[in-house]
């Protein structure tokens, strides 16, 4: 039974510092990008955020676009969707760069998480899953944009328990007695036949009829 | 909001959450715990750093030749940038129970924002099912004080996050924020003395093993199949 309850004390690491400060960066103004490609990803990202630096964005684009495309191919196996992922992820990098600061971790991790999130949304659309929750609801540190709420009609397929109970009441008495013995009193077929004083074969056929009728009644309701 | 939870997701679940490889349903319930639990929040950001390392290290440096990069860059930089953090007001952040209301973590508030339809099950249990994907069955469960879930087995894994009140089973007593994982091998019998609101995610439907609840088995499977095919067509 050792893997029955997971987690008690299993993921305790380090101190409880919440790094997800939403404050604006306190970093000094970043220098313009060096043309020799020696800038760190963080410097590039901050340059994009602080003064819409096109050269810095080009550099980030050439460092990350093929990685993003590869993640898309791995998860969707579809060239068009992977192309869309590059477009959407790099657009998000551009749009949210002013929100990045060093407290949020490395630039590569920041870009990874927003790529992961765009990929989640693309996959959800591809699989036609309900749009109830988007990636930005699930991973909230990236939740700055109002996500558009798309309501897809999803029919409900449920059958109320109370209905089943009322169907059960509509069964002929002989069948209801059998269903009651088996499903409510939890008796075996042999025990139920003995209690009702009927042959085992009779019990089984009444049970089959009774359960069949219940399913029919439920089926017409759904 | 911070809660000292005693039970957390497994390291594998947190890793899948950080890497983005889990189903939407499993992501939602882990997200709700992570919002409440500072320890797991820290783990997730470390796992994200590790996943990004792995991503860059393992990806071959090969360009997708079909992409016109300069055209793409031109179209991107035409967009305005976002200057400040915006906070969005969720349409629902609370569930009203009989005598009080419960504040929900963000992802669950979003899940509940389409409206919940509560149904009464046997044993003092109320259930509101939500469809998030074709791989899981997700539901809010409200156990009235003194209620007991019929003994049941799982075909897959079940995760239960306590939101309010508490429940207990053979293995422990679970309070708000606790993340309880049960595997297919377990047969268990949760009960709640003081009443409990939970969110539960199963990666396959329940199989009740006893009593009137057994009558429901074919219908539960039916519902799951329908929900799956509706989501996949
Ligand atoms: Zn935790």
How would you describe the overall organization of this protein?
The complex is a heterodimer of chains A (222) and B (233). Chain A has two domains: 19-25 and 157-221, Orthogonal Bundle (Arc Repressor Mutant, subunit A); 41-148, Rna Polymerase Sigma Factor, Chain: A. By secondary structure, chain A is mainly alpha-helical. Helices cover 58% and strands 0% of the residues of chain A. Chain B has a domain at 114-232: Jelly Rolls. Chain B contains six helices and 15 strands. In chain B, a hairpin with a 2-residue loop joins strand 9 and strand 10 (172-174). Chain B is elongated. In chain B, the strands form five sheets. Chain B has a six-stranded antiparallel β-sheet, with helices on one face. Chain B has helices at 11-19, 24-36, 38-58, 69-76, 106-112, 217-232; strands at 94-96, 101-103, 119-121, 125-130, 137-143, 147-148, 152-154, 158-165, 167-169, 172-174, 179-182, 187-188, 191-192, 196-202, 206-208. The structure holds zinc ion. Zinc ion binds at residues 5, 8, 33, 37, 39-40 of chain B. Zinc ion (ZN) is lined by residues 5, 8, 33, 37, 39-40 of chain B.
Brief characterization of the structure:
The complex is a heterodimer of chains A (222) and B (233). Chain A is mostly helical. Chain A has two domains: 19-25 and 157-221, Winged helix-like DNA-binding domain superfamily/Winged helix DNA-binding domain (Arc Repressor Mutant, subunit A, Orthogonal Bundle), CATH 1.10.10.10; 41-148, Rna Polymerase Sigma Factor, Chain: A.
Keywords:
heterodimer, A: 222 residues, Arc Repressor Mutant, subunit A, Rna Polymerase Sigma Factor, Chain: A, 2 domains, 58% helix, disordered N terminus, B: 233 residues, alpha+beta, Jelly Rolls, six-stranded antiparallel β-sheet, three-stranded antiparallel β-sheet, 32% helix, binds zinc ion
* DSSP strand tally of chain A: 0
Instruction: Indicate the CATH architecture of the largest domain in chain A.
Output: Orthogonal Bundle
From the alpha-carbon coordinates, what is the Rg of chain A to the nearest angstrom?
A: 30 Å
CATH topology of one domain in chain B: Jelly Rolls
Count of DSSP-assigned helices of chain B: 6
Classify the beta-strand content of chain A into a percent band. under 5%
- Helix/strand-derived category of chain A reads mainly alpha
Mean pLDDT of chain A equals 72
**Share in β-strands of chain B:** 25-35%
H-E string of chain A? HHHHHHHHH
